[in-house]
Write a structure and sequence with these properties.
globular
Amino acid sequence: MSAPVNRSNEQDGYAGDDDDNVGNGGNRDHDDRDMDSYDDAEFVISSDDACVAATTITCQRCRRPFEAICIYCRIGTCFGEPLEDFTIANINRMDTTLADSLSAWPHFHPLGSPEEPGEFANHCPSCGAPHEDHVLHDEPEDPFFDIAHAAPGRLRLTPLPGQIQLSGDEHYQVE
């Protein structure tokens, strides 16, 4: 297993553990689970078939176009449950394999300061404005809302090598 990269001061980092996700069909709510079985887990999401999904968006601040990314898993697990065709938002921890792979996208980095980093987010290379995941994943018009059914050419998928492990919130299309 790769060593964890925790650029957040959060202690647990479990997907779906904040109140903002309760009742959202695209975000699993894990609050009703027995979390004791995951207390020692470094990561709650794992995939052997993951990609970096990339698309061009317009910066909300300076209006310049730039490439935004997210992690898309064709198959994987979250809290040990198998899932298909899901993205991960609000990433707060990742293994070194994933961190090394994401170094090719330097504008995807934690919010906050080096002393107190937060969740990872895309940042505009022109003005530095962060574009948090809720503007990229949550609504049907958002570019990473339903990657499995995206129009051809809308996204570029770059396969990630080997197994990745991370913590954040999984998003999937409910059909």
